[in-house]
Structures are given as C-alpha cells and as structure tokens.
Amino acid sequence: MAARKKVSASKRIQAGLRDLEKRMPRNMQSAMNEARANLRKFQHQLERARKNRDARWQKVQTQMRRDVVRLLQRLEKAVAPGGPASARAPAPRRKKR
What we know:
mainly alpha; 3 helices; about 75% helix; rod-shaped
C-alpha cells in the first residue's frame, strides 16, 4: 500500500469547504462567499493591528532604553569621586548657640 501524502489541516479544511459549498443551494453559496470575504478582511485588519502594536512597542522600548542609559550616566556622574556632585554639595550646617 502506497504512503499517503501529508496535507496541512488548513488545506483539508479549505477543500472540505469547497466541497460543501458545491453541494449548497445558490443563495447559500453567495452567503458563504461573503462570509469568507469578511473573514479575509478581518484577518488583514488583525495583521495590520499586530504590526502597528509591534511598531509602537518597539518605539517605546527604544525610548525606555535611551532614558535608562541617560539615568545611569547621570547616576555614575553623581556618585563618581570628585565629580560635580561633591563640588556642588553645600557645607554641613552648624548649630547656632
């Protein structure tokens, strides 16, 4: 017995839908076509929304990284010995007697 060729699930479903569509009355076929077209449009909208979401996330992530680098640089500068932070630090206050 010859081995059967593997067919993806989506292709089997599409073939089944085509077969079902051929057996349906004309008015149901047009409804099926409309439903398929609407599903295709919805899938495209979903893909576009995902791409937009990914692009926005990438932009936010890049900005956050830049901000963190700037903050770390400021922190290093402030903590560095003899840095500008020690030059700006006011002298300790004395108690009045």
